[in-house]
Design goal:
This protein has helices at residues 56-62, 68-76, and strands spanning 6-13, 17-24, 28-35, 40-44, 49-53, 88-93, 96-101, 108-113, 120-127, 132-144, 147-159, 162-169, 190-191. The protein is mainly beta. The two termini are 27 Å apart.
Amino acid sequence: DNSQSISINIRMEKDKMIWLSAKLAGIIPLAKVLITPTEVKFYEKVKKTYFVGDFRLLSDWLGTNLDFQKVQNLLTGQTIYNLEEGNYEMEETPNGFEFQSDEEAFLTKLFLLNPQTFKAEAQQLVRGEENQSLTITYPKYQEINGFDFPKEIQIIANQGGESTKIEIEFRSLEMDVPIDFPFDIPSGYKEIKIE
């Protein structure tokens, strides 16, 4: 029932680090996140809390198991799961190549790939018994230095009748430039513990 618009600066080094800095109205600092293959760290300034741990928090929040590679793939328009691992039925449809996992599995996976670029157009993960789903769509792509990169990403996470919708629009993108990843948890912040 709430809607918020937040500017997020994202910096990535392939297979090593993802850094996010969120600001309200583009000027008021809200939070920072640093994700590596082994760790997730973030702090937020409103309640002055921080978290240092693994991917359990992100996984619980989105309702699916995540790791660094899956987050990186999600942000770059790749399929979250490697299609070469696992059994999928492939069908060529008017919208592209559709891959679907075994419907009897605990987690049903559905991927729609663009037939020209093989980039993800849509991805869906469903846990029917737990009433959980994660749907990711990529309405627009942009070409940067010869690479197709998402211009827009829409994420809808449903869990037990509750729904969270995240819309991402990349307004400016640079590739192959030197970057740093400044991240220091301010003193006096309270640690978030996950049981």
